[in-house]
Amino acid sequence: MNNILTSSITIAIIVAVVAIGIYFKKRAEASAEGYFVAGRSISVPVSAVAVMATFVSAATIVGLPGVMCKLGFIAAILMCAGAACAFGWNAYVIAPAFRRAGVNSVPEFLASRYGNNMRFVSLLAILLGYVGYLVAQYKAAGLTLESLLGIPYVTGLVVFGAIVAAYIMLGGLFAVIWSDFIQGLMVIAGMVAITVGILIAFGSPGDMFAAAQAAGAKTVLWEKWGNTNLQLGITFFAAYGLMTLPHVMVRFFAVKGAEEAKRVSLWAGFLGVVVWTPFFLIALAALIISPQLKTPDAAIFIVIKQVLTNPLMASIMYSAIIAAVLSTAAGMTFVAATTVSYDLLKIIKPDVDSKQLILWNRVAVCVVTVLIIGLALNPPLLLLELAAAATLFISATIGVPVIFGIWWKKSTQQAAVCSLVVSGSFILLFRLIPPLYKWFMKNVGFWPELAGFAMAVLIMLIVSSITSAKEKEVQFYSKIHTTEKFPA
Amino acid sequence: MTQNDRHDPLEPRTTLTLVAILLVMVVTFFVIFHSTPAGGPFHVYLGVAFLVACGIVPLVFNFFVTRNKKT
């Protein structure tokens, strides 16, 4: 019964997202701005729910209760609170400036601020990071479809990739954002369903904590995360790293104005907290049901099976997990494909027209999807490790020139290119070559990405101090800091 | 460009204030967390309260900033 209902809801979601793609096809094809930034017409509520959906992936829904059960609540608190802070300061630090820049992609923002060389190097960094990130998402999708609907892993990967590619190609960012909106509502509905179910079954959080302890569960294994360096590292990763991800930043290009971009970020952070908070109840419930939980990632499924006895409620929760996979993968695929087509074409042929840009984006979506499916057949690392490494790589390399570009007038092209190339090469070297990675972890004691970030900041400061910004760079800086009616 | 946009040049002081408030919250959480006995329900409640605050404080901050700007 559950399987039929879950399949029906999943099919309904798939039909809805493809229908959205068809509905927005004409508006998306009208101009490059329509396809790549949804005509800058998306309202705050739709965009905020969509950003939250992009952010909450299946890895979050399945992984967070598992992390809480295995590593203790502190790990999850630091990750989630860091992410909420990321949205909070994103609203002021990045979102309004990005919207005011009037560009269509993150490399285009960097090119406008620092010159075309920066478009090329940032494009390479985004592609490298997103390959790892997307492989992790597609693997999560394949595993989720396999465990929830019984679809074999490889078939699940191909079907999933085809659906994501279809609606992106049809409706561009319009389709991505509106389908994310529906998927975000599904995630919220799923979390409400499971929260109500848990509270009815186990009583108040205080009762649940007492019951978990009485059952002998090691509810709060704080000791495993007792290392302050590790705690600070994970907080930094969440609070800074997640703020500078291009598939989140691109949403700020699509809203009506800078003030709206700010509100989108604030509300997305709030919605994130609304969705993350029930995970503490889920983890507690899992520990009451199974105090010696052997497979932490199974925590949520144990709770759904035991607590959500109503088939409709259980199916809503399962469908929420599938919706979360779809929304995150679609956002990332779109950014990766845009980087390949839009930014690369703009370098090769600056006067390319919008029809060609849209056509090549569709080709790029197909190429990226096939490539990622191929890599996801045999992913090299653990899911969470792969996603974390990719996130840190992107934020350490791309994030520094972005933030300096917005907030420091003296930032120069030479500094931005040097910081990205040196920090990116350093991270790749020490992350991808196992003996070097082991040496680094043993002798330095923290992730190479954090050292790469520090290196990027230092290079920006030093090189910008000994070089001077060009007139064009300063003009763009002034543009994002002011408006036509109230010039600086 | 919307009506609100025209009144909203990037404000370094406001931005720094929000960043500082959030940093103070993180530091306060770490201090309370490390100076109280580990493992009890207090840490769970403290953690959840911290998480909820991280989502609400920026919204409240923006509400006051916008209100002050209008008046």
Count helical runs of chain A.
23
Number of strands of chain A: 0
Shape of chain A: globular
Following the backbone from N to C, one meets helices and strands of chain B in this order, namely HH
Instruction: Specify the structural class of chain B.
Output: mainly alpha
C-alpha geometry of chain B: elongated
Portion in strands of chain A: under 5%
The biggest sheet of chain A amounts to:
none
Radius of gyration of chain B: 17 Å
Provide the gyration radius of chain A in Å: 22 Å
Number of separate helices of chain B: 2
The secondary-structure class of chain A comes to: mainly alpha
Main interface: chain pair and counts: A-B, 55 and 41 residues
Please, what is the oligomeric state? heterodimer
Helix content bin of chain A: over 70%
Q: Key terms for this structure?
A:
heterodimer; A: 488 residues; mainly alpha; 23 helices; globular; B: 71 residues; 2 helices; elongated
Descriptive overview:
The complex is a heterodimer of chains A (488) and B (71). By secondary structure, chain A is mainly alpha-helical. Chain A contains 23 helices and no strands. In chain A, helix 3 packs across helix 16, helix 8 (116-149) runs parallel beside helix 20 and helix 9 packs across helix 14. Chain B is mainly alpha-helical and 71 residues long. Chain B is built from 2 helices and no strands. At the A-B interface, helix 5, helix 6, helix 10, helix 11 and helix 13 of A face helix 1 and helix 2 of B.
